[in-house]
């Protein structure tokens, strides 16, 4: 979309035109400007101090009128006067009623409206032009197959694969739902005149995923101009974003902060996010990052478990476990793993019952009591064999982590091919290193946890531990 020709990329506005757009639509800058940071032009545009700034000033650095916020609420308002937008949102059904579905649909329509061939599609609004200031983000979904192979053994590899599958399902949902709408058929899907491709859907996803922030009163949304600010964690975060009592967007300098003229005004995208999520959603890692911080590893129920089909059917938990830093060590959490480690001999059972409307459903039981699988851990903690269940779970995690370590080590020392770009290479290399270090720490932590469980329990646990490891 927004193309010179079908094989070329989106047409963009130069960033030095942004102040004109902002002034015309009521966006106010107070001591800041937007553009590339001198010496770091390759990083794209950011928010820069136009003079020396000191915290404590009640006047916002950036003021954004509430009707410019790309939120679910405002999209619903636009749809009331733009029948093309309303037509698409209604056509895609449940997806259009989600914030993500509404925002991506809105962005896609704005991109369509910028094409010279589509003069009579949509109602022009200020955001039609704003999206042309947004750069294309090199998120991992845009990496080549060769570049994605660099991620083998990392938690980012399955995450990218799952995301691409999800995006493809969304794209096909959009195609199927709108193919019967005349203007969509002509400008999006027609073999000769259609302009929409899967790459375009990935672009609007990248726009939203890399720029959406959660604002009080507005929820997840894109805040024009504020969303140009780069991320910095901890004390390096220079500014806060929020909404005022009228719902307008604000960028405020933190108390006690002083930014010299020419300095960068940063915000936080979330200090608790791990290395994998930062690369996945934003396409970067801070230089100061020294830990993967948090990882999610998938876990499966063994094929030889006779209760496997029933367990899969009733499970509502993510099929895996999360390891994370806590007080300078590694800890873990998982709701799913407890379903994996218990069996019929322990007291787990399933029964099929018929509902009042004639349908059949599977119900889980623990020691002949109806079981809420969302509270499975609570039920197990009160069982005399709780130490056994803990030991099984920890050993299972240990084995899974060691498998991941072996997979990561296979990819170490890979040679860089000339076709691999610099950014994917550097990010993949750093992620492999950070995750390997965290996994090795996890093995040590799990060994300690196993010893603790065994030492405070009856002697037969030692035998159970040896058998499970051997």
From TrEMBL:
<feature type="domain" description="SET">
    <location>
        <begin position="30"/>
        <end position="270"/>
    </location>
</feature>
<dbReference type="GO" id="GO:0016279">
    <property type="term" value="F:protein-lysine N-methyltransferase activity"/>
</dbReference>
<dbReference type="InterPro" id="IPR001214">
    <property type="entry name" value="SET_dom"/>
</dbReference>
<dbReference type="InterPro" id="IPR046341">
    <property type="entry name" value="SET_dom_sf"/>
</dbReference>
<protein>
    <submittedName>
        <fullName>SET domain-containing protein</fullName>
    </submittedName>
</protein>
<dbReference type="InterPro" id="IPR050600">
    <property type="entry name" value="SETD3_SETD6_MTase"/>
</dbReference>
<dbReference type="GO" id="GO:0005634">
    <property type="term" value="C:nucleus"/>
</dbReference>
